Amino acid sequence: MNKITDLDKLTKKQVASFRDNLERIIDRFPKVSEPLIIDLTKTKLKNQTATGLSYDDNRGLLIINDEPVKFTVDRKMSDVLKTIFSDDLSKEWSWDEIIENWEEKKSDYESPGGAQVMIYNVGKNINKRVAAETGNKKILLVTYKKMKINPKYLK
User: Fold this and answer.
1) How far apart are CA 125 and CA 112, in angstroms?
2) In Å, what is the CA distance from 121 to each residue of 76, 106, 117, 139?
3) N or C: which end of the chain has fewer CB within 10 A?
4) How many domains does the chain have?
5) How many Cα atoms are found within 13 Å in the side-chain-facing hemisphere of 92?
6) CB of 134 within 8 A of CB of 67?
7) Residues 82-97, buried b or exposed e (16+ Cβ, 10 A)?
8) pTM to 2 decimal places
9) Which residue, among 131, 129, 126, 133, has the nearest Cα to 148 in the 3D structure?
10) Does the structure show a pLDDT above 70 at 42?
11) Where are the alpha helices (DSSP H) in 29-75?
12) What CATH number did the domain enclosing 111 receive?
């Protein structure tokens, strides 16, 4: 078995195999696997900031100061995080820029209040989940028109 030291060099097949094996370990040994998951999240990712802020869209894992927050991949919250972490982390994103990244999934983002309100609500829900799991508040600065990573987490 080859030792992989850089997550960015993993192939999709390796990531899928690793994810499957990790899920089996978690199911079989829930108390033992938690420290393992935390150790794995300490691996530096390509878009990680000095404060330890990063998002791994393959695993749906947001890491803030070595504290992992898991998001279900291919859901609205993970889609928003994937977009925000895809470019310059200090960029301010308009709601329509976020929607544009998933042209093929546009129907998923239609809601009675409109896409703009939905993106606002998703941003607020990301903040709630992060605060509940890590105590870090307002990871995203969210308005009805724009969203960006709070600059205090980029230092």
Assistant:
1) 18
2) 10, 17, 6, 14
3) N
4) 1
5) 7
6) yes
7) bbbbeeebeeebebeb
8) 0.65
9) 126
10) no
11) 30-41
12) 1.10.10
CB 147 within 8 A of CB 84: yes
Residue type, 108: D
Distance, in Å, from the CA atom of 13 to the CA atom of 139, rounded to the nearest integer, reads 32
The identity of residue 27, as a single letter, is: D
Other CB atoms within 10 Å distance of the CB of residue 40: 15
Phi-psi region of 74 (alpha: psi -120 to 50; beta: other; left: phi over 0): left
Sheet with strand 54-56: strands edge to edge: 54-56, 61-64, 67-70
Interval 62-105: pLDDT, tens? 988 778 899 887 788 988 999 999 888 999 999 888 887 765 56
* Cα 61 from Cα 55, distance rounded (Å): 6
pLDDT-based confidence at 128, cuts 50/70/90?
very high
Residue in the structure block whose two tokens are 């606002």: 120
Amino acid occupying residue 101: N
What domain range is 86 assigned to?
42-153
Contact predicate 60/73, CB 8 Å:
yes
For residue 121, is it within any domain? yes
Q: How far is CA 155 from the centre of its chain?
A: 18
Q: Which amino acid appears at position 118 of this protein?
A: M
CA–CA separation, 20 and 13 (whole Å): 11
